[in-house]
């Protein structure tokens, strides 16, 4: 999938409409499935008519998917209705950004002054002219006004005032970001019980591979109102040579225990097992040990209930100590499928206790080479929190951004770690203040993020 940025901008468009039409036709003519993404509803000031006509003339079939227009989103975000019985029975949607060939705004202010609630789009640089025009047309200077910038987004901002303040330039949005101006009696209302979520307005960076970050934590964070910035710094890929693991799976009858320390190990192990034509019955008499709640859940999805999960701490070393304390491990044979960069604490402890541990690579962790869509924003504006779920994610984050940017972003935001090994890696990279999850699980990460970032209710 390839993205082509066609940015709408109140300034002269860097991609004129004819050029955008040409891109749509050229890509579709090559047999590609093209999605033209628009903010709000494409049929309301979205130039859908021009694009649809161009596609129709080129003989290219298309479908128009309606959306929520910016006026509705801004009103809901501001906590006001667009219409209200007894106050306003109609609403007008108006674009202030007219065709440059017309000269000036070219709106009939007298008509608009009698049109109920007003929602003005693309008024960048012309808010004072809007206020003056409506007052001269007869709207009272005290008419309520709400200006909503980045409506429905985590960095949404709103300014509340009067038409007089708008006309005098006292209601001015920050430059660059889109905004909507809502004018009328309804702008003076507030919907009751409008509650913000604990993480509303907070941005949290997730640095793990997309395959794992799409599950669990993102959904929970969104429920609490957070904005998620996916910045995957690592990728999980198959081993360069899977033959040693395949041979071990063929001979599982030789092992007493299989040790799983991550969800990735579970996924790749069972993918390899099924690829050889086996299913879970192949595990046979082997007992299963698992580190962490997430690893155990992934085993359960494979129909396997772990025989041992560390009760004290979700680390390989803790698992080894519980194995040694619970039974004789001398001369027992353990299969430990893992990443090629997995720690050696667990296997060393078991080996010192007389066990035979076959440590075999089930997957590799590599630094992600493709860029992040949010990279520029992260460098320029930072974030409220950064979540790291492995030491390799820390290393990858530093490699992708560079030490200066990575260190500065982590100093400015709150840094969260899933466990002690990740915390140590962050310390090695100079991060002095780290909030470590009480449990090595998405739920544990959520609890520490809420504890640190949540706004008072």
CATH C-level class of the largest domain is: Alpha Beta
Structural class: alpha/beta
**Number of helical elements:** 18
Poorly predicted residue ranges = none
Q: What spatial order of strands do you see in the largest sheet?
A: 1-2-5-3-4
The radius of gyration is: 29 Å
Offer a concise description of the structure:
The chain has helices at residues 17-29, 48-57, 70-78, 109-112, 127-136, 163-167, 210-213, 217-223, 243-250, 263-275, 293-301, 316-326, 345-352, 375-381, 391-401, 403-412, 420-428, 442-453; strands at residues 91-95, 117-121, 144-149, 157-162, 179-183, 203-206, 227-230, 234-237, 257-260, 287-290, 333-339, 356-367, 385-388, 414-417, 435-436. With 457 residues, it is α/β, with parallel strands linked by helices.
Give the helix/strand layout.
Elements: H1 17-29, H2 48-57, H3 70-78, E1 91-95, H4 109-112, E2 117-121, H5 127-136, E3 144-149, E4 157-162, H6 163-167, E5 179-183, E6 203-206, H7 210-213, H8 217-223, E7 227-230, E8 234-237, H9 243-250, E9 257-260, H10 263-275, E10 287-290, H11 293-301, H12 316-326, E11 333-339, H13 345-352, E12 356-367, H14 375-381, E13 385-388, H15 391-401, H16 403-412, E14 414-417, H17 420-428, E15 435-436, H18 442-453
Parallel strand pairs: 1-2, 6-7, 6-13, 9-10, 9-11, 11-12, 13-14, 14-15
Antiparallel strand pairs: 2-5, 3-4, 3-5, 8-12
Helix pairs in contact: 1-2, 10-11, 12-13, 15-16, 15-17
